[in-house]
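USER: Write out one fold?

ASSISTANT:
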Amino acid sequence: MALCSQGGLLLFAMLILAFNVSGTLASPEIGNQIKSATFLSPEFVLGPGSVEDRYYSNIDFPRGHVGIKSFKAEVVDDIGNPIPLHETYLHHWVVAKYYQRQGMAENNDKHKFQPSDYLFAGNSGICQGDVLGQYFGLGSETRKTDTHVPNPYAIEIGNLDEVPEGYEEKWLLNVHAIDTRGAVDRLGCTECRCDLYNITVDKHGQPLRPGYIGGLRCCYDQTQCKVQQGYGGARRSLYLRYTVEWVDWDCSIIPVKIFIFDVTDTGKRLNGSTGLGPENGCQVEYNVESCSSANSDGCIDAKRTSLTMPISGYVIYGVAHQHTGGAGSTLYGEVIFNLSFRCINKSRIIKMTAQNCCPCFFPLRLTWTAFSLPPHISFLH
């Protein structure tokens, strides 16, 4: 058998890829019964124009060595009624895995995690460092979006062989929701326009860069979007309700790995930097410039990037995440055969060609195009 890396899947603001060891698809059935559980996030309270953007550690999640088959979520009130998007805009939610040192107290502030006590366990890439490193997540498109991973695949969690000694596997939730009831400009609030939030510094107290007119730096936790004078909407308790389906792990399941693609990815990784920077890798958001209404027929902004995957394999599942103004996104994949490849075999080295190939070490170039409609600011992962 060729020595090929195992695994592969892409999720959240992008697509899911899965990579098989041998290149042959296994039986389409998994014998274990699918289990399901519905959980609630900690309570968050929103009033007209207010913002929730907090991190909750050690959330309720399936335990043990299992394979996740689907993850669904929505915002509900304190009696379980779904909240419409025109009242509470679900900007995004993400769920990430981390390892916590045994015996440590919980900490719900991601930015106060001590590196030695909390180890972030991100996905398989391809952004720099921990940028977009979550396992699951979507936004306003969450409802009615199919997240089921087909048989015989699943997202493996709870494998004790992967947990560092002295640590335990846990899960972190981030919910970013904006209450748009009574907003002067509902669309502007969901686009996080800085003037509507009266924001000139980010959540760390640093001045906004010149020309930054809207985005995550202006609608962070406890900020306030402008509402109509005299509007009297009440504050209310809300929750993210999430339903997880899983199966007990066994050898009939093929594990998949999560890859997230960002259409703003520059493709550069500067001097090993792992953070956000103007030219460094995934930018997370971008600004779609406004255009004249007289030329509305041709007023489409298309953003495109081309990226190379570190490994090759099968596409198992994919989903795109966009914000208001987004008109669609497309992922194209092509296997590049313009070089000579070698697949290491136990007994010999085989020179690979387009006619004689296996799923080992082929670079896969993925091109992602997103179309957005001005004049709105449209943020896209």
